[in-house]
Amino acid sequence: MKLQHLSIIFIIIILPISIVLSEYINHQIDTEKKRMEYDKRLLNSTYDSIKAYQLNTVNNAFGDITNKKIKDLEAAAKTFYNSLASNFHYTGYKAEVMREYIPAIVYTLYDGYYIYSPFINTLTELKDTDYDTDFSENGKKQDGLKPYVYYTARYTRGSDDFVITYTLDNYITIQGKVSGATESGYVYDYGYLYNIASSIGDSKNNGGIFFDGTNYYYDGIEFSENDTEQLKEFVGYKEYPYAKINGKKYYLEHSDGWNESNTDIDTYAKIFFIGEDGNKNYSQTKGYYSDEREKFTKYYNAITKNKSAYEYYKNAYQFSRAVLGTPVNGYRDKTGGEAVGNEVKKGYGLSNLKASNAVIYKDNENPDITKISSYGDFDIFGGGNIEYSNSNFNKHRKSVIRYIVETNLTAAISAYSSNSVSEFIMPKISEKNWEIIENEVCAISFLQGLNLGTKRYNGYAVVANTLTKDFVSENDIYILTEGNLYSRVNDSKMVNIQTKAQKGYYPGVWKLNFEVLKDLSGGQEVFYSPISYIDSSGNVEGYKGNYTSIMGSSGLTRDYSIDNSDMYTFVKNKVNNNLKKVYYTSLGRERWGGFNINNINYEVYNTTGNEYFLADY
């Protein structure tokens, strides 16, 4: 073939193909660049939403109350929409247009989650013009939170038929028919679940809780009712004794001349909490008058002789005995009904409960959704310490959470349509992001349908809320070391742990304590975190946080990895009993005073105070 012929073939066939391929590749590159840019904008907007939620809840004494939390979540969702519209402003998308491309925003909390999504209002029976048309206009598209979805699984075994609600740690709620557990055969109970040890040595070697008739032991560390604490932290420029009760901190204020023998106690001692305005609020306990004397005394004792850690392990032991073995004599479930564990009653008998007993173990109707059967069949409460991250319990807990989130979210996204996008599809969430969803309070946002050039955008973002009051993670306890420096337990720089003999309490705190409570303007007193305060000269005084613990991970011990270990096993492998005592006490104290422990009690007993926490004071 002549050279001229080859040239003609190249010009007519090869060159156009090369040009087309080059153009195609350039389009693909541009599409991928745009997708990455959209991912970044979506992530930033989701982060803004989390920050808005933190600002509204972390510094609010009443942020755990359900109605207030819903308002805070709605405000966080609006922040997301505004931020996303701002991030896409230069691409030509306006705020109202961006809503057409957002099928859902998910806010996962301690024991369940909310989906914030657009919906069509079908409420037609309210036709009176006095009603707000925003909520009664038929066919109007609105944004709002859908009903709360709990992390629940139903189990059937023989004649038993009950539901277990899971959380982000080892706290569970059991409700339903459990044959022989009570006289009625029905149970409503909840608490932190641990393995039961057979002796002090078993507790030390294999973990679990042991009771010797007087004291409780976890990992061989003793918890005695007489080993009380008087916790202290800074409010403004002064250090006050305090106790955290139902998620809110109550402080004891002494006037000059105070001592415990004073008969006119109201003159010298008052109890306050920090209100939403950042000022001291004395409304919870009115004073030491005749009708308030008993109530005031309970608060006073809870603050001056705090035994939250003891109560935590005691209740965990008693609940775990009822769930896994023979209940302690006289134990009652949370309805206050018939006692279990006497000569004719037995416990809940769940020590051999299997994953296949879960009704959702197999899901033939949704083959594209991860089924918990894919994790295998095993004894849920067997296979080692329940609270450890690699336990059977946590494997099952995470699979239930994933199933519940994935199933409901798939239905919510696929059911939504807009004028701009005809069909929404649940994207495939990575295993790394599922690990965050299953273990952290977080926000999940979805954005679909935007034009990328050669295809449509279908993206999501997951941002963990690392500053939340919803639950106390075992990874977020910080211990006081020399130089008044708080460090994470596995920080390589943590040395010379301070003791109760030095401080009057076991000096460990929750990570959330490092956040500023309130910064008031207009010359009023400034309330800073209990870790430190700023004096009149602008100097930082009090306790400080270790930078590598609070702000990063560069100083963390390298044998600690979330993939193959957890803080429980890290602490257990340490021979330093002082470290163990401070860590376990601080973890138990913070969890026992947390909102999630006591909230259900108020619903059951229809009370408005803190009677459950204060019962033993």
Question: Can you lay out the helices and strands and say which pair or pack?
Answer:
Blueprint: H1 3-57, H2 66-87, H3 95-98, E1 105-108, E2 112-120, H4 133-136, E3 141-145, E4 149-150, E5 152-157, E6 160-165, E7 171-177, E8 186-192, H5 200-206, E9 209-211, E10 216-218, E11 221-223, E12 231-235, E13 238-245, E14 248-254, H6 265-268, E15 269-274, E16 280-281, H7 293-304, H8 308-324, E17 331-332, E18 339-340, H9 392-414, H10 431-439, E19 442-451, E20 456-464, E21 477-481, E22 485-488, H11 500-503, E23 508-510, E24 532-534, E25 540-542, E26 544-545, H12 547-550, H13 567-572, H14 577-592, H15 595-605, H16 611-614
Parallel strand pairs: 22-26
Antiparallel strand pairs: 1-2, 1-19, 2-3, 2-4, 5-6, 6-7, 7-8, 9-10, 10-11, 12-13, 13-14, 14-15, 15-16, 17-18, 19-20, 21-22, 21-23, 24-25
Helix pairs in contact: 1-2, 8-14, 9-10
